[in-house]
Amino acid sequence: MVRAQQPLLLPALESDIPGYSKISSRTNHNDANYTYVEVSNLVPRSEGTVNTSSDHNPSNDCSPRSQSGKSLLSTLGPTIELNFKQLTAKICWLLAVTGLLIASGIHRIDDSLSRIEKIELHLVIVEPKEKWGGQAVEKPCLITSHTDSILCPVIAYKVYKEKVAFNPCPTTQKNNSEWTVNRLMRFIKDNKKPLSVVSITRYIHSICDLIRREPDTPIPKGREIGATLATNAGVSSEDIVSHAFWSNYTFFDTYYRLTRN
After folding, report:
1. How far apart are CA 180 and CA 171, in angstroms?
2. Stretch 9-28: mean pLDDT, rounded?
3. Which of 88, 48, 53 lies closest to 189 in space, CA to CA?
4. Coil, helix or strand for 160?
5. 248, part of any domain
């Protein structure tokens, strides 16, 4: 398979704890030469947007849908203590937000190529429909760790591997029996079966639905939340489009930007 050159590295979610209001931008000094940011907090707003400002105290709003990212995930408890269903929902949501991945992208993660290096989770998404020189394209996805275990996607991945995806789950492509992927996401009742795209979507929505929004407005997508967080944190649209492998800025601006604040 052919490896795409641009890795995908999205913001780490910072908590809503006082003292974490600083937004910093850093450049990774390896050969890929990409930039990543730390976002101060994840605060769902009533208008359905996600704001990184630390001046909003979610404790002042009694609505269960008005919680910071940490509070929202804290209701589930520590990652290690989650049941299979809760753990699956959490890792699907974290991968969608921090990796800017849609459900089908999460479904196509080839876990045989996954690795953890220091504080970084390296994933590879296989694109069987995209060809380069007759070979399927592999898109790298790099997600950084978080100091808060509640919000850490790397910890969620480790726990999920230990509790659910501890055995290989190789499946072949319907139209190409020679193409095999070791699926990361599994069914709860049978971890030897890969989780479908529809099920992954439902798990992501189960957490996104907790974000407060106006009546009759759609549930925000995890990828929308991640892209908006990156934008509000000061990441350029060009970098976001490049990291997410979108074709152009218009695609991002039309479908994956929740706010233009």
Report:
1. 5
2. 32
3. 88
4. helix
5. yes
SS3 145: coil
Burial of 163 (0-12, 13-18, 19+ CB in 10 A): middle
Phi, psi angle pair for 60, to nearest 5°: -80, -10
Residue 205, φ and ψ in degrees, nearest 5? -65, -30
> Domain total for the chain?
1
Give residue 112's pLDDT.
Answer: 95
pLDDT at 211 (0 to 100): 78
> What is the extent of the structural domain holding 19?
2-255
Give the pTM.
0.71
Using the CB atoms, write b or e for 28-62: b if 16+ within 10 Å.
eeeeeebebbbbbbbbbbeebbbbbebebebeeee
How wide is the angle at C-alpha 128 spanned by C-alphas 227 and 184, nearest 5°? 65
CATH number at residue 72: 1.10.443.10
Task: Give a yes or no: residue 261 inside a domain.
Answer: no
Report helix, strand and coil shares of the chain as percent, to nearest 5: 30, 25, 45
Asked whether residue 138 is domain-assigned, the answer is: yes
d(CA 188, CA 92): 13
Instruction: Specify if 38 maps to a domain.
Output: yes
User: Which of 63, 75, 25, 68 lies closest to 50 in space, CA to CA?
Assistant: 68
Determine the Cα–Cα distance for residues 193 and 173; give it in Å rounded to an integer: 14
For residue 148, what pLDDT is reported?
A: 85
Dist. CA 78–CA 251, nearest whole Å: 36
Q: What SS3 class is residue 141?
A: strand
Stated length of the chain: 261
**Which amino acid makes up residue 12?**
A
